Amino acid sequence: MDRKIRIGAVSYLNTKPLIYGLEQAPIRDEIELVVDYPAHIAAMLGDGRIDIGLVPVAIIPELPESHIVTDYCIGCDGAVDSVAIFSEVPMDEIRTVLLDYQSRTSVMLARLLLRDFWKKDVVFADTMGEEFRHQIRGDVAGVVIGDRALRQKKESKYMYDLGQAWKDHTGLPFVFAAWISNKPIPGSFITLFNQANASGLQQLDVIIARETDPPANLMEYYTRYISYELTAEKRKGLSRFLSLLETYNSRVPL
Prior knowledge:
- The structure is a single chain.
- This protein has 9 helices and 11 strands.
- The model is unreliable at 250-254 (pLDDT under 50).
- By secondary structure, it is an alpha/beta fold.
- Strand 6, helix 3 and strand 7 (123-126) form a beta-alpha-beta unit.
- Helix content is 36%, strand content 24%.
- It starts with a strand and ends in a 7-residue tail after the last helix.
- The protein has helices at residues 16-24, 38-46, 104-116, 146-152, 162-170, 187-201, 204-209, 218-225, 232-247, and strands at residues 5-10, 31-36, 52-56, 67-76, 83-87, 96-99, 123-126, 140-145, 158-161, 174-181, 227-229.
- It has 2 domains: 5-75 and 174-247, Periplasmic binding protein-like II (D-Maltodextrin-Binding Protein, domain 2, 3-Layer(aba) Sandwich), CATH 3.40.190.10; 83-170, D-Maltodextrin-Binding Protein, domain 2 (3-Layer(aba) Sandwich), CATH 3.40.190.
């Protein structure tokens, strides 16, 4: 390409190792980096404002063209600790579920698991870009993701981890976000991009030291809960999720 490649990434603690790698590696001179929350990065990838995005995988069917471009992702193989349904009452008493506006993958995963794993018929309520966690009370639960979920753990009586529920339901790991391009990317760039991702994951001590008030034990979070390598098993989990999306009648806008 005859210009810098535009990269979009989400602004969560779980992405900081990957972003740090991009910022420190030689590839930084070949890219323009934009950091925002998942739904915005997805929209920018969809309309061509960026070339590659670390985006919620649920948008893949909506893109006219998509390519997974690295061997890294935001995934889990069991509990993820930062994507969950939170409530004040047990699952069988939940009547309404608030849907986090920041990531459609987590929302769709919650919808699928409530239907197929927990066998729950609930009312879903969209949140429109506002903080909604104070509404989680009584029989109203909420899907909360990212750094806010790590904080919500300290406030809610019940937490239903979506990564663990997916593993229990399917036996597979889950991919929440992957590096997706909307056009072919030169192989030479992808090689450097992979190296940058790997470099960031090798410097967790440095990344953790930069956080002044983390909501959780970050070394445990990065090494026990978040699984960054896009393995063959994770690709199977991703394929299973995308196939289930095809059968789901309610479509959530990009």
